[in-house]
Amino acid sequence: MHTFKLCTLSAAAALLSTSAAMAAATQVNITDPKTATRAARVEIGGRLAVQEVPPASFFHSGGFLTSAGPCVTFATAPATKAVVVRQLRVDVTDIVGGATGGNNNIVFFFGSACNEVVGQVTPSSVGLVTVTFDPGLVLNPGATLAATASGSPRAALAADGYLIDSGAALRVAP
């Protein structure tokens, strides 16, 4: 009787270890539901291979702040696509009167009314300042980024990112 129980337990353990080994070796494929030939790959070292953003989807826009005061729109998402802004570049070209410090600010906003702050730069000198958004700042279709200055900085502004389908965008920006 004890031999029968021992054999039964041994058989059950062998079956479980075989099932576990099969589960560990099961292959899972990640594919595009619309185009099955577009499948994800795994790189050497076990990392998921991620394709770079195709050049056709790059987004770049810019504008100028010439004085303190009114809001200046410098980026607008297309009507049919959303934009993921990865960085803002501020090239301070002049600080009128040479005064630096806390009185000179460039503030970035969602929308042309300049009422929802998304970032700020306080330039201490003439030159380039980069503001990075990771994983990105989403502009829904038709949404804008604007900036305003206080104090006396003058700057060239640029927004860099990439376009995505409007359905893939989270409703973040107005």
Helix percent reads 10-25%
Strand order of the largest sheet: 3-10-5-8
Low-confidence stretches: none
Biggest sheet, in brief? 4 strands, antiparallel
DSSP strand tally = 10
Oligomer: single chain
- Mean model confidence by pLDDT: 80
**Secondary-structure element string:** HEEEEEEEEEE
Number of helices: 1
Distance between the termini: 75 Å
How is this structure best described in words?
- This protein has 174 residues and is mainly β.
- Helix content is 13%, strand content 44%.
- It contains one helix and ten strands; from the N terminus they run αββββββββββ.
- The chain starts with a helix and ends in a 9-residue tail after the last strand.
- The relative contact order is 0.23.
Structure in a nutshell:
The chain has one helix at 2-24, and strands at residues 41-42, 48-49, 58-65, 72-76, 81-95, 105-110, 116-121, 127-139, 144-150, 153-165. With 174 residues, the chain is mostly beta strands. The model has no long low-confidence stretch (mean pLDDT 80).
Summary tags:
174 residues; mainly beta; four-stranded antiparallel sheet; elongated
